[in-house]
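hey m, so remember when u said the tokens were messed up on ur end? i reran from scratch. heres the input so u can diff it against urs
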Amino acid sequence: MSVDLRTRYLGLHLASPLVVSACTLTSKVETLVRLEEAGAAAVVLPSLFEEEIEHDEMEDYKFYEDPANSFSEALTYFPEIDYQQSGPEAHLRHVEAAKAALTIPVIGSLNGTSRGGWVRYARLIQDAGADALELNVYFVVTDPDMTAAELEYRYLELVGDVRESVSIPLAVKISPYFSSLPNMARRLMASGADGLVLFNRFLQPDIDPETRSVTPNLVLSTSDELRLPLRWIAILRGQLQASLAATTGVHTTEDVIKLLLAGADVTMMASAIYKRGPDHLRTLLEGVRTWLEENEYQSVEQMKGSVSHANSADPSAFERSNYIKTLTTFIGPAIWGKADRPGKT
């Protein structure tokens, strides 16, 4: 039986639900070509950061060169910048080059947290040829005077500003840390988003005890991190008329299948490709095709969302009751003797 792997995301017709997320893998055209050849249905280019646009590169250069301008301990906290290869103009050239080299959709990415002139680059990314735009809102609140309502309003204003700047489809990549994620998701759609990417994976700082300094530490994801986006995609699938992309923890065929059953339109990955290389996409595609055939599905569209919160035979499994059941029935690893295992008499 021939199965149809096609899906739709942000109004784009994709050959499959496998999308490469924004990362350094998509920063070189030759790698992008390899990813397409291996089966990527679309790619998200690396983010253009608000800070790159807002700060003049020469001012940054002076900051790095003149220690008198800052505390010496702080200098090691900032990454070194390749001024020949970085910056907004180089980013726009990369969008153009990617579009010229690929036949699959190219999704641009902006990363920022506040309103301002930098948002005009959304239009420039569109003009460079991007088929859609992903707005990655990565904001860690440290001000105790900022309320949850103020934070949410900041997101909504930013999305509205970007929406006014572009006519191409707009996805918003957010974190899971909202008091009411379904309500926030609905308001993001009302502000102009066409889809959501769940979730932004905050890179947590680490501390080096020897130097007593804060150190950046990027740790690749694992499949165990899949459950958070899986739960919320399943819940949101029946509540929103919007595209939903799952990201973080997508490594195996089983991971992809789970997220599609929950209701994801696409699955985005980077860590799996860092670990296994572009050809891993071929393995995943064949795995999805085999699963569909064995389970008598004719297409990805047919299976999509069949185990979402709205369609599940047990919707409570996504809610508190499952939490209670799991905690009260878990025994743990087999490290106890039969006589003294908890719950046994």
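this time it looks ok to me. The chain has a mean pLDDT of 88. if urs says something different then somethings off w ur setup not the seq
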